[in-house]
Amino acid sequence: MASPAQRIASFDELYQAIQALPPGLTGEILEPGVIRTMGRPGGAHRYGARAILRSLGGDDAWDGGSGWWFEQEAEIRFLQNRLAVPDVSAWRVGADQRLPPPFVLVNPLVQCPDFCCELLSESTKKSDRELKVPLYAAAGVEWIWLVDTEAHLVEVLRTQGGAVQTVDTVAGDVQRPIPPFASVVDTGRWWVSTP
């Protein structure tokens, strides 16, 4: 006799379980019915994300720049009831440089970002590449950065029609704009030196 099909928990059930996680843990739904939990980012991870955000200030409407609205570790609900927490995400903004208040105040965010950045670490690089990149591409995220702070490497991916292409690779310390942004960034400030 065949066993009955196991019911997959709904997004709302999974999201309630994520909200009930103990302090210091967060969760993502990258596969149907599965919560992936993770602790808060380590020091090098936080440092890298902050350095990236600071270097893109000329593009950030929040900081007086133009063209984009940036968020760090925002919960975003994607297609097929998936939930991801990109290290950095951004949305293009109009000439008024403002996003509508409902967008900013909703959690999880439901408007698909135009850009997602993942800082790779030993514990996340497999899921970042194998689960998050395809999820972002299928959802319509146009630009994806994979930043390896240990290898001093930035992979710039662009999606079109769900297909992902590498359009730039930035290695080491450079000072130049990195697509899709106009700000000249200094990647040398993104890497944490080890004593």
Structure description:
A hairpin with a 3-residue loop joins strand 4 (76-78) and strand 5. This protein has helices spanning 11-19, 43-55, 101-105, 125-139, and strands at 25-31, 34-39, 68-72, 76-78, 82-84, 88-92, 115-119, 143-148, 153-160, 163-171, 175-176, 185-186. It is built from four helices and twelve strands. It has 195 residues and is α+β, with helices and mostly antiparallel strands. The strands form four sheets. A six-stranded mixed beta sheet has the order 3-6-7-8-9-10, with helices on both faces. A two-stranded antiparallel ribbon has the order 1-2.
Write the layout of secondary structure elements.
Blueprint lengths: L10 H9 L5 E7 L2 E6 L3 H13 L12 E5 L3 E3 L3 E3 L3 E5 L8 H5 L9 E5 L5 H15 L3 E6 L4 E8 L2 E9 L3 E2 L8 E2 L9
Parallel strand pairs: 7-8
Antiparallel strand pairs: 1-2, 3-6, 4-5, 6-7, 8-9, 9-10, 11-12
Keywords:
195 residues, two-stranded antiparallel ribbon, 4 helices
A few lines on this structure:
The protein is an alpha+beta fold and 195 residues long.
The helix fraction, in percent, is 10-25%
Mean of all residue-level pLDDT scores: 89
Percentage of residues in strands:
25-35%
Q: C-alpha Rg, in Å?
A: 17 Å
In spatial order, strands of the major sheet run 3-6-7-8-9-10
Overall body shape = globular
Low-pLDDT ranges:
none
Helix/strand order, N-terminal first = HEEHEEEEHEHEEEEE
Kindly name the structural category. Answer: alpha+beta
Got a strand count?
A: 12
Count the DSSP helices.
4
The end-to-end distance, rounded to whole angstroms, is: 62 Å
Q: How would you characterize the largest beta sheet? A: 6 strands, mixed
